[in-house]
Specification:
The complex is a heterodimer of chains A (337) and B (249). Chain A has 337 residues and is α+β, with helices and mostly antiparallel strands. Chain A is built from 9 helices and 12 strands. Classes of the chains: A alpha+beta (337), B alpha+beta (249). Chain B: Its main location: cytoplasm.
Chain lengths: 337, 249
């Protein structure tokens, strides 16, 4: 309900506002919108030569996807070849107006907090000599309520790349599907598969352009390309890190301890899978927001393969079978005397 | 915001785009340019019209570097070339930024051709009046490549091609004399093709050589003169041999 009120305020305020002069901040916030191609700022506010906005979306020139579903109500959409007048790649959209409220900075922060999902999950991925292992739990929680125990948190981007889900389920699912589309288009246009580096960069650039707008994604992109196994951590703040071992989510602390302790570079696929399974299990044991079942995937030179999916309850009794405790006193029938 | 909505390039009743064909005319009037692909080298050569005495010839470079491993030469309107080259350079860097990989020759050719095509189908603009020859090495397969684009926006890969003034005679020469070459032989083949239509001498030819290891290198006038001398000597020897053979029979 709060969200609806918020949107109401936005639309009402937008209808009333006077046109704001395009200042430097306005251009930058517009530049974040996906699908806009801004080669250089308007004549009035040229972007500095080092500005990332200058280059960011030029790469999308050849693969312009229909993002009309994502277009917000701020500003009129630019026409098809509307910008062809002077600037072939489209003119900047009109500025986003700030709502008329007493404390704008707190207002923004409160909105962000409200829409931000806490990342209640445990996912992990690591590189070893035979590829990449990716594992995750399957619990979705809304505060204290467990909404599902059977969420698929490992998303198959394409037959040789996997992504993990942490944060907002819808955000992760949509943007991974979108990334899969972009990877396929890249493959078709360039007649070769996209590298894990490239795919993670594409996703990171998109997420950066939505920075501050409430997306909540903490994902790992794992895959096997020409250079061998690749693993990147990408999140909705715009970070993109290359690494050998990552764990994301509220249970990541527990998973890291088991993972770091048992990790060796040279392992068999079964050993590596078992390590991942144990790490997730221990995280689900201690973290209330993780649970359900553990899925373990392996990405090798021929693509990914699901190794196992085990319920953590059953795993618990496998790792810690019930000990028969000796009975201290046995109750016997009273002797009939 | 005022927009141009009337297209300048429109179809004629018999299916021609006259503006594009006129642009090709402009290309035909431009300087001769030739490109030859060898097994480990690609060479670009351009005709250099005599520079006025007071002009600084270094500012009139006709072969442009798009990235460390890609170069471009063109024939036609040089002012249009500047615009196209700048956009291509930005695209090369943008590609490096978004996928952390250098562009392939095919990708950047596709981009340039796409740009040329866009300007044949938009309001208020005219087509670019130039054909380009793009050479480079594929960063993944390390194979050399030569592509050509034209004002209509089509592109294709070639083993050797020429564009600009008298390109037909150069192409005929190349078709007759092309063989798989490498290193110096490739350079000589390019120079021989250019010499068919250009006065001989290092002053009138600009040559750039690209190899996988060393990237793009412009040849000095003295070097070109050496090659020209070699070629003339070979030609003379061939003539003499022919005459000798003719005398015997």
């Amino acid at each position: 309900e709060q969200l609806i009120n918020l949107l109401d305020t936005f639309t009402r305020v937008q209808a009333q506002r006077p046109k704001r002069p395009t200042g430097r901040t306005a251009t930058s916030s517009n530049a974040r919108k996906k699908g806009e191609e801004i080669e250089s700022g308007d004549a009035a506010t040229p972007l500095p030569p080092h500005s990332i906005h200058r280059f960011r979306n030029a790469g999308d020139a050849m693969m312009k996807l229909d993002m009309s579903a994502l277009e917000t109500q701020f500003g009129a959409p630019a026409g098809e070849d509307g910008g062809l007048l002077f600037d072939v790649d489209g003119a900047a959209m009109p500025a986003m107006e700030f709502p008329n409220c007493p404390d704008f900075d707190r207002f923004q922060a409160k909105t962000k907090d409200m829409v931000k999902n806490k990342r209640g999950t445990t996912t992990l991925a690591f590189i070893f000599d035979k590829g990449v292992i990716v594992a995750a739990d399957s619990r979705a929680s809304m505060g204290g309520y467990i909404s599902s125990q059977t969420v698929r948190k490992i998303i198959e981007i394409n037959p040789y790349m996997l992504g993990t889900m942490a944060g907002g389920a819808a955000d992760c699912q949509f943007w991974h599907r979108n990334l899969g589309t972009k990877c396929r288009l890249h493959e078709l246009a360039n007649k070769r598969r996209i590298s894990v580096t490239g795919a993670s960069k594409l996703l990171a650039n998109i997420l950066y352009s939505y920075r501050g707008m409430g997306l909540s994604i903490g994902t790992m992109i794992a895959g096997w390309d020409e250079k061998g196994p690749g693993l990147y951590y990408v999140d909705s703040e715009g970070a993109r890190l290359k690494g050998n071992r990552f764990s994301v989510g509220s249970g990541s602390l527990y998973a890291y301890s088991v993972l770091d302790e048992g990790y060796r570079f040279k392992m068999s696929v079964e050993e590596a899978g078992e390590l991942a399974r144990r790490a997730i299990y221990h995280a689900t044991f201690r973290d209330g927001a993780s649970g359900g079942c553990v899925s373990v995937y392996h990405v090798g030179p021929d693509g990914w393969k699901k190794l196992s999916g085990d319920d953590v309850g059953e795993l618990h009794y496998q790792y810690y079978p019930v000990q028969k405790t000796p009975v201290e006193q046995e109750m016997t029938d009273a002797s009939t005397s | 915001m005022a927009r141009y909505d009337r297209a300048i390039t429109v179809f004629s009743p018999d299916g021609h785009l006259f503006q594009v064909e006129y642009a090709l005319e402009a290309v035909r009037k431009g300087n001769a340019a030739v490109g030859v692909r060898g097994t480990d080298t690609v060479v670009l050569g351009v005709e250099k019209k005599s520079t006025p005495k007071l002009q600084d010839s270094r500012s009139v470079r006709k072969i442009a570097k798009l990235d460390d491993h890609i170069a471009l030469a063109c024939a036609g309107l040089k002012a249009d070339a500047r615009v196209l080259i700048n956009r291509a350079r930005v695209e090369c860097q943008s590609h490096r930024l978004t996928v952390e990989d250098p562009v392939t020759v095919e990708y950047i050719t596709r981009y340039i051709a796409g740009l040329q095509q866009k300007y044949t189908q938009s309001g208020g603009v005219r087509p670019f009046g130039l054909s380009t020859l793009i050479v480079g090495f594929d960063p993944h397969t390390e194979k050399p490549a030569l592509y050509q684009t034209d004002p209509s926006g089509t592109f294709s890969a070639w083993k050797a091609n020429a564009t600009g003034r008298n390109s037909n005679s150069m192409r005929e020469f190349l078709e007759k004399n092309y063989k798989e070459t490498s290193g110096k032989e490739t350079i000589k083949l390019a120079i021989r093709a250019l010499l068919e239509v250009v006065e001989s001498g290092g002053k009138n030819i600009e040559i750039a050589v690209m190899t996988q290891k060393d990237g793009l290198r412009e040849l000095e006038e003295a070097e070109i003169d050496e090659y020209v001398a070699e070629i003339e000597a070979e030609k003379a020897a061939a003539e003499a041999a022919k005459k000798g053979a003719a005398k015997e029979t």
